[in-house]
């Protein structure tokens, strides 16, 4: 094989490799191409995701407000309970003092 035949053979091999690579790239592009229907579906999914995030944010805000209301109510009820317990303690003390007064007056 002389020099000219070697150059021609190398050129043919390189051209064949280039053509095969170009064909493989075209074929991959052809099969992985995104269609308009798929783009429309992606847009619908993005819109649905956006709406779901807005709904979640609204639910979280509602829960925060509701939790604050319930915490306020618990605080009020605890204050009322403390006042009732103080009133009951005072009533018991007064009852004991009255019982003592009655017992002393019966002995006398």
The main sheet comes to: none
Q: What is the string of SSEs from the N terminus onward?
A: HH
* Structural category: mainly alpha
**Percentage of residues in helical conformation:** over 70%
What separation lies between the terminal Cα atoms? 146 Å
Low-confidence stretches: none
Radius of gyration from CA coordinates: 45 Å
DSSP summary: helix tally: 2
> Which word captures the global form?
rod-shaped
Number of strands: 0
**Portion in strands:** under 5%
| Mean pLDDT across residues | 93
Transmembrane segments: 6-28
Protein name: Membrane-bound metallopeptidase
Keywords: Coiled coil, Membrane, Transmembrane, Transmembrane helix
Coiled coil: 60-94
Could you characterize the architecture of this molecule?
Residues 60-94 form a coiled coil. The chain crosses the membrane at residues 6-28. The structure is a single chain. The protein has 108 residues and is mostly helical. The chain contains two helices and no strands. It has helices spanning 3-32, 36-107. It starts with a helix and ends with a helix. The relative contact order is 0.03.
């Amino acid at each position: 094989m002389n020099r000219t035949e070697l150059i021609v053979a190398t050129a043919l091999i390189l051209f064949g490799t280039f053509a095969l690579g170009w064909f493989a790239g075209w074929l991959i592009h052809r099969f992985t191409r995104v269609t308009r229907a798929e783009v429309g579906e992606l847009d619908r999914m993005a819109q649905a995701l956006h709406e779901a995030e807005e709904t979640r944010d609204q639910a979280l805000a509602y829960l925060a407000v509701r939790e604050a209301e319930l915490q306020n109510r618990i605080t009020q009820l605890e204050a009322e309970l403390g006042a009732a317990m103080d009133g009951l303690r005072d009533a018991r003390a007064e009852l004991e003092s009255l019982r003592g007064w009655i017992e002393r007056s019966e002995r006398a």
